[in-house]
Design brief:
By secondary structure, this protein is an alpha+beta fold. It has a single domain, classed as 2-Layer Sandwich (Cytochrome Bc1 Complex, Chain A, domain 1). The protein has a two-stranded antiparallel sheet. Helix 1 packs across helix 4. This is Peptidase M16 N-terminal domain-containing protein.
């Protein structure tokens, strides 16, 4: 929506903050790191890309966590306020960047 700039980027941030089954903030990244992997995401004008890699024996559990971002995100008030500020800071930083 053009009247809500940054909404997709905000949701990109929020999905990493917890789900109904895995409510602990940071649990997803902890799990990924403990299983030899990495995770990241980015948003463009046209899409949001989520990526991760883990050891093959952790793939099923990683997919369970990842898929729940889209089916049962928590979107808590505490995280909402913080992530709005984070996205706004990134946006403002883009205007002052030398590149």
């Amino acid at each position: 929506r053009k009247d809500l700039p940054g909404l997709a980027h905000f949701l990109e941030h929020m999905l990493f903050t917890g789900t109904k089954k895995y409510p602990k903030e940071g649990e997803y990244h902890e799990f990924i790191q403990q299983n030899g992997g990495m995770a990241n995401a980015y948003t463009t004008c046209f899409f949001t890309n989520y990526m991760f890699e883990v050891k093959s024996d952790a793939l099923e559990q990683a997919l369970d966590r990842f898929s729940r971002f889209f089916t049962e995100p928590l979107l808590t008030r505490d995280c909402t306020d913080r992530e709005i500020n984070a996205v706004d800071s990134e946006f403002q930083g883009g205007f002052t960047s030398s590149w």
